[in-house]
Amino acid sequence: MLVQKPVFNQSDPTEFVFRVFTTVPEFQVLLFLLFFLLYLIILCGNTAIICVVYTHSTLRTPMYFFLANLSFLEICYTTVVVPLMLSNIFGAQKPISLAGCGTQMFFFVTLGSTDCFLLAIMAYDRYVAICHPLHYTLIMTRQLCAQMLGGAVGLALFLSLQLTALIFTLPFCGHRREINHFLCDVPPVLRLACADIRVHQAVLYVVGILVLTVPFLLICVSYVFITCAIMSISSAEGRRRAFSTCSSHLTVVLLQYGCCSLVYLRPQSSTSEDEESQIALVYTFVTPLLNPLIYTLRNKDVKGALRNAIIYKAASDAS
């Protein structure tokens, strides 16, 4: 049933409200419990990886340094979205200010972009480890790892600041506008502007290419060289171990880049708003949830470190 909206003075500050998932109380409870449980698992799983990497000397290598930072990004990324989403499941639509929406968009785009850049850096790390194993420690120094990570964060901050500032210079008609989404993402907010947005859509497309297409192409090039190097290994066991170290990373890459490309690189006319929300749920919940599972279940070093940590904790509690 449509509810008539009150008329506000145009001088009032602009506010946004998010579309409700459902108005059925029973479904609201189920959705809240489901999303809250997934959020807790994401926090615990990724925190466990960070703790294990920084407390076990055997995991203090560039690969696990990047993995720990990826886990930290996933925690921040979901925290930017999920608490606000959970607060909007129950009751009436809760408004979010123009500044609040812009802040969420800025951090969401920054963390998501850094995530994509970091996955490309991790592919380069695997390339050096497999194609140039004798020079690995000379190339992947602690200083270079920190510089690459800092460059990824800096570039993401720059692109996100430019994109967010450009979007929020647009006029938004009316006092309170409904975002057909569960977060202040770029495409649904752009649709609410009462001005020509062709330039803004072009900028979004360029940013999407820089954040998604370019890193993905670099990852593909890295894995072409990696595959050639692996196929030249004479031992079947050696090939299996080499492929095993890369398969976890490739699984995360395909999930992350595939879902994000469907939202940000497809023409807006070919994407429905409901599809965008469903895909956004994948890279908001599924990818951060699978990261710790994929990297622990398919990595014997992390599994061994986790097992030792659990045994040590159990022994400490028993004594």
Automatic annotation (TrEMBL):
Location of the G-protein coupled receptors family 1 profile domain: 45-295
GO CC terms of this entry: plasma membrane
PANTHER family: OLFACTORY RECEPTOR
Heme keyword on record: no
Main location: membrane
Segments crossing the lipid bilayer: 29-54, 66-86, 106-124, 144-168, 202-230, 242-265, 277-297
Membrane-protein topology: Multi-pass membrane protein
InterPro entries the record matches: GPCR_Rhodpsn, GPCR_Rhodpsn_7TM, Olfact_rcpt
Family under the similarity heading: Belongs to the G-protein coupled receptor 1 family.
Localization (cell): Cell membrane
Keywords: Cell membrane, G-protein coupled receptor, Membrane, Olfaction, Receptor, Sensory transduction, Transducer, Transmembrane, Transmembrane helix
UniProt xrefs under Pfam families: 7tm_4
Superkingdom of the source species: Eukaryota
GO molecular function, one term: olfactory receptor activity
Protein name (record): Olfactory receptor
